[in-house]
Amino acid sequence: MLIVLAFTVFFFSLLAIGSSQLSSLLRSQTVQRETARCDEGSTTAVARGIALLETGYPATSPYACGVTLSTSDGNLPFTVTFMYFGSNKWTVNARPTVIGELPPAMPAQFTSQTPP
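Now predict its structure.
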């Protein structure tokens, strides 16, 4: 009987240690997945903005345009902003479009061949 009691205490001790480590792993994986889900649309919007910048230059600096992307949460609108700093240095930012904000649609290509 004493052996059964010792084995039960030992088993529950191992179960407690394993459960703690497993729940910690699950929490960190959940955070990593949620971070990736939040960033997926913005990352794609910035990539499209950089590809668009390779076709030419926007007419003004800063220049904002909108694009709707398919994400795991459905189709979401994003605003992409281009800002020129001289010497061919640019920043391209993307953020979810605020309700009521209506940026012009992202063009297929920029037509200007000189920076703003």
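The chain has a mean pLDDT of 88.
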